[in-house]
Structures are given as C-alpha cells and as structure tokens.
Amino acid sequence: MKICITSDGNNLKANVDPRFGRCAYFIIYDTETDNYNAIQNTNAEGMGGVGIKNATMIAEKGVEIIITGNIGPNASRVFDEFGIKVITGITGKIKDVIESFKKGNIK
After folding, report:
1. How many domains does the chain divide into?
2. Which of 1, 13, 19, 29 has the most CB atoms around it within 10 Å of its CB?
C-alpha cells in the first residue's frame, strides 16, 4: 500500500508538515517494499488552487492514504472522488509516523 505523508524535509528523519497544500515535500511510502520517494512540492508558492493540484498529482501516483496535519476542503473533495482516505491531526517524525501506521496505531 502506498501512503503519502506531508513533510518539511526530503527524508524519513524530517517532521510531518502540518499543511497539505503548502507543505515542503510529499513522502510517498510503500508499506510492502519499505521504499519511499520524496517529491518536492512545486506548488507550495502558488497563488491558489494548490490543494487541488497537489491532491490530483498524489492521486495519480496510486496513493491510498494521506497522512497530514491539516487539509483544506477542496483537496479533501478530490481525495473523496478518488476514494483516498485522509488522516489529519498527525505530528512527529516521518519515520515514527510510518512505524505507528504499520503497527495500526494510526487509523
């Protein structure tokens, strides 16, 4: 399963970025292979509609779950349309969040 975590850095030692649309990076983590890819958020400085643009891009990557601090209503609607689950209110180190998710502590 692919999960996407908003991040303030490009590796697993970074922290969860509390913003979806304007986060620094998206960490796409594959729970089956334990591999990840860090994607820089090139829309972070955009004028508007960045949540929708990012949500569409993430959905096209085959992600099934988004983990973030907060997400706007427009991006949330895009994820609903694609059947992607959104988990908000998450903080901490990316590696710790991944471990908690794998143990079933984040739902």
Report:
1. 1
2. 29
Do the domain assignments include residue 107?
Answer: no
E strands present in the chain: 2-7, 25-30, 35-40, 65-67, 85-87
List the CATH number of the domain containing 61. 3.30.420.130
SS3 89: coil
Residues in the chain: 107
Query: Which residues are bridge partners to 38 per DSSP?
Result: 27
Residue 85, SS3? strand
Please tell me the pTM assigned to this model.
Answer: 0.94
What domain range includes position 58?
A: 2-102
Q: In the numeric block, which tokens belong to residue 7?
A: 């991040």
CA angle, 62 then 38 then 101, to 5°: 65
**Structural domain includes residue 64:** yes
